[in-house]
Design goal:
The protein is of the alpha+beta class. The longest helix has 17 residues, at about 380-395.
Length: about 800
């Protein structure tokens, strides 16, 4: 919402510049998104002038040479200004831009020679000052003689017209429709600064109560139209609005049309309550009826579109059919035009959810619908009626007919809420004197009554839907008293222990272990597109195809909950690689979802993706490439940091490279071990889907890791005796994974084997086709003594026997 600052200051004018106003409003919850400048940036160089002579240009049929009295602004006498406006004439008081003035479009005026005649300035039109944007505004100059007062030549134009206005762009939250009008914002500024607030602009109402002769309104659906008010104006003259009104509407983002329509827009901007003007002579039988529409019923709206309605929408009709879509837009049949002389001014209250549904279904949003859907108070109807009635009389020469049509149900007594001083202190963490609480609430139009221990607070009608509980009042006190004043305190908690759970500690340790290896953390969307499943080459029936589908997605591209972290990791990788970032190592810790037999299942996973070089590129070239073994080494650092005994076993996944993929397990033999996740290189077809080259990934279930990780890591003292190290070379079928061989070695060796690693792999003619040689480094150690070869000999025999069961043979035998 755009609020011109001069208009705001008419109702509340604190001793602050526009940036001070911005700070106070934002700090109290009415956020200022931006500050705009409407019109000219600098008012200097714009003055009032009087045309002394206007003669035909000697060399141009459409130009006139004017002698203009500029008073003190032109000490050398009247200025010569060439003007092309058809309506310029001697004796007029006009707006003039002097040489050096900067126009709203950024142009700096200079003296110019037009067809041989020097022009020392410009006589301005309304469009050139951004006071009006209609085509007619640029056809002639702005004549100031129509203003109520007379201004001497040389008077600064800013004292006559609002040629330079600062405008606040506000973000009004949906729970504060009372701030959708300038006076509502002024009330907030009054509360925030203590500056005086002018009387409400609707206090002086020229209308009266009672029936209106010659007009009738009925409401068939009071549940969707809580209140409908109307007044009749006779002798209306439809014409152009005065300059001040057009300037104010333009600064607020509205397009001036004619005085009647402009009055409805002005009253809406001031009070927050939309209005609509009917040409009463075009309302059949002068009777309006509010009802639900019929399915398929059609109406042509003011934007020239014919729209089909349904039975949940509300229309206003006369004897010949619908004349407008209630709360959204009027119809062309009863539109106010130049020939209008009788106006029925409608100000009604509509059900917010119904207006929102209708607006969405029709794809039609308006200033009115955006306000009604937030839930306006029925009492606002008469606020807008009073403001608009006074303007109709003043600006259109109308006569207000006696009476006011007012159809609606009573809203019941105002809500009274007890505000306890003790509760205020408990919630806010500081003492706010009761007198200060009453002062703050009074500025916001709440009525207060002192009681023992606090206040009885009566909620104003405009805050009925927003303030319903004691804590809502405490929020009002806090934001006006100053949220920046609140101390940092811990909330009161009972029976709570301020420690992390085991699962949370494991999750943090896992994330720290990966980040400590230099990987960057990313955060992806929890939503995904259904085509992700096909891009990952998942066959029908695969467990990752058990997706959770959203009933009301933001878009088709975000219509399922992600079943794996791979999608978001790949999206981030493609984004970076396509922007000249070929070397990437990232991880994500987040929730994934899958459909269960009764309800959705979810767990927390950690995924890693690496592509490109493992180390920064330099003059020596890149060292290492992201592949299966690089990902496995990173996985090892993660699981070892959590003190989890783990294994990898060959396994196939549709999105991983055949022969370069594995299942990550822990505990038990391969057949009954608990699966923690997967590890491998991306399938080339999947990598191509995301425009990637060779890429390695792994994803593990952090919930399962937490169940396997010890609560407390045990400490073993460093041994005081040296270890016995031996090497062992064995040939094995190349179908036997090295990991399986190492597991057999550990199982056969028992507790004396401290460690076993593979330090060399050989394939070639010396070991035979289909076989390979693994060189194993064995480290034996006892806690209480130094082991000898005789101690290790039986253990070594058991190791050889276990490897023989896998088809192994010792090298050299």
């Amino acid at each position: 919402m755009r609020v011109p600052v001069p208009w705001l200051r008419e109702h509340c004018d604190p001793e602050l510049d526009v940036h001070g106003i911005e700070e106070r409003l934002t700090m109290t919850g009415t956020k200022v998104e931006a500050i705009h400048s409407h019109g000219v940036d600098a008012a200097s160089g714009f003055v009032v002038g009087r045309v002394l002579e206007a003669e035909q240009h000697p060399d141009a049929d459409r130009l006139q040479v004017c002698r203009v009295d500029l008073g003190p602004a032109a000490p050398d006498g009247p200025a010569s200004i060439v003007c092309g406006a058809p309506n310029v004439a001697a004796g007029q008081t006009v707006a003039v831009a002097l040489p050096g003035a900067v126009m709203p479009d950024g142009r700096r005026l200079q003296s110019a020679r037009l067809r041989g005649v020097v022009s020392e300035g410009m006589i301005l039109s309304e469009s050139e000052l951004e006071l009006d944007s209609s085509p007619s505004a640029g056809e002639g100059i702005l004549v100031l003689d129509t203003l109520d007062a007379e201004f001497a030549p040389g008077t600064p134009l800013a004292e006559v017209l609002p040629i330079s206005q600062e405008v606040l762009e506000l973000e009004i939250t949906p729970n504060r429709p009372d701030c959708l009008g300038v006076f509502g914002v002024a009330r907030e500024l009054h509360a925030a600064t203590g500056a005086p607030l002018s009387p409400a602009p609707w206090e002086q109402d020229p209308g009266s109560a009672g029936a209106v002769a010659g007009a009738q309104v009925t409401v068939e659906c009071p549940d969707l139209c809580p209140r409908f008010t109307a007044r009749v104006f006779e002798g209306v003259t439809v014409a152009e609005s005065p300059t001040w009104l057009k300037a104010r509407l333009r600064a607020a983002g509205q397009r001036p049309i004619n005085n009647v329509v402009d009055i409805t827009n002005y009253a809406m901007l001031l009070t927050g309550q939309p209005l609509h003007a009917f040409d009463l002579d075009r309302v059949s039988r002068a009777r309006l009826n509010v009802r639900r529409a019929s399915d398929g019923e059609r109406i042509e709206t003011l934007d020239g579109q014919t729209r089909a309605l349904d039975g949940e929408m509300v229309v206003i009709e006369d004897a010949e059919g619908p004349t407008s879509i209630a709360g959204i837009m009027g119809g062309v049949r009863s539109e106010v035009g130049p020939e209008t002389t009788r106006v029925l001014l409608e100000v009604a209250n509509w059900d917010g959810p119904n207006i929102h549904r209708t607006s969405s279904a029709l794809g039609l949003r308006s200033e009115a619908s955006s306000r009604f859907e937030k839930g306006l108070a029925p009492e606002q109807c008469m606020h807008a009626q009073a403001v608009a009635s006074r303007l109709m009389i003043d600006l259109s020469g109308a006569t207000l007919a006696p009476g006011t049509i007012d159809v609606g149900r009573p809203q019941g007594p105002a809500r009274v809420i007890r505000l306890r001083d003790e509760r205020v202190s408990s919630i806010l963490g500081l003492e706010v004197p009761v007198e200060r609480q009453a002062e703050i609430l009074g500025r916001l139009d709440f009525a207060t009554e002192p009681v023992a221990g606090g206040l009885d607070v009566t909620v104003p009608a405009l805050r009925r839907n927003d303030v319903t509980r004691e804590v809502d009042l405490i929020e009002e006190v806090a934001r006006i008293h100053g949220l920046e004043r609140l101390p940092a305190t811990l909330p009161a908690r009972r029976g709570a222990v301020g420690i992390l759970t085991h699962a949370q500690r494991v999750r943090r340790a896992a994330e720290d272990a990966i980040a400590g290896r230099g990987l960057h953390e990313v955060v992806g969307w929890s939503f995904a597109a259904p085509e992700l499943l096909d891009r990952l080459r998942l066959p029908e029936g695969h467990e990752l195809r058990r997706v959770v589908t959203l009933e009301n997605p933001l878009s088709e591209a975000q219509s399922i909950l992600r079943p794996t972290l791979l999608g978001s990791l790949l999206d981030v990788a493609r984004h970076n690689v396509s922007r000249n970032g070929p070397d990437l190592a990232i991880f994500e810790s987040g929730t994934v979802h899958r459909a269960g037999p009764e309800h959705a299942e979810e767990h927390h996973a950690l995924g890693v993706l690496m592509t490109g070089a493992l180390t920064p590129r330099s003059w020596r070239g890149a060292r290492g490439e992201a592949d299966f073994f690089a990902a496995k080494a990173l996985l090892s650092s993660l699981l070892d940091a959590l003190h989890i005994r783990w294994q990898v076993h060959p396994d196939s996944w549709p999105f991983l490279h055949p022969g370069r993929s594995a299942a990550v397990t822990a505990g038990g033999e391969q057949g009954d071990a608990e699966r923690l996740g997967f590890l491998g290189e991306l399938h080339p077809l999947v990598a191509a889907e995301w425009d990637l080259e060779r890429t390695a990934v792994f994803v593990v279930d952090l919930g399962r890791l937490a169940s396997l990780a010890p609560e407390v890591a045990g400490f073993r003292p460093f041994p005081s005796v040296p270890a016995l190290r031996q090497d062992l070379a064995v040939t094995l079928p190349d179908t036997v994974p090295a990991a399986e061989a190492l597991e057999r070695v550990r199982g056969a060796a028992g507790e004396t084997l401290e460690d076993v690693t593979v330090f060399d792999v050989y394939t070639g003619g010396q070991v035979g086709e289909g076989r390979r040689s693994l060189a194993l480094a064995l480290s034996f150690q006892a806690p209480d003594r130094t082991l000898t070869d005789e101690d290790v000999a039986p253990v070594r025999e058991r190791i050889v026997a276990a490897l023989t069961e896998l088809g192994g043979e010792l090298r050299g035998q």
